[in-house]
Specification:
With about 90 residues, the chain is mainly β. It is built from 1 helix and 4 strands.
């Protein structure tokens, strides 16, 4: 098994940060991750990180958040995938 973290980050249109955060919070994935965390940052940015326990090579099939409506964001969503290589301090 492998731990995979999917990161989804978007920047809201001016003054719509709370709306983007609520939109991200309301999204339902095909299945639930082991953990899901929502974060916010300056400039109305929203980050969603999901953690998954998957067999090797299955990470490409993990469900991801979609793109929000174009008028809700200022640019395309940024996405990253990370695979855990070491854990400490838990």
């Amino acid at each position: 098994m492998s731990t995979v973290a999917l990161m989804w980050e978007a920047r809201a249109a001016d003054g719509r940060g709370n709306e983007l955060l609520e939109w991200a919070r309301s999204q339902v994935l095909e299945r639930e991750p082991v953990r899901r965390e929502l974060l916010r940052a300056a400039q109305d940015r929203v980050l969603v990180v999901t953690w998954w326990e998957e067999a090797e090579g299955v990470a490409a099939q993990l469900p991801e958040l979609p793109e929000p409506a174009p008028d809700l964001i200022t640019r395309p969503v940024h996405r990253w995938r990370f695979e855990s290589v070491e854990t400490s301090g838990t």
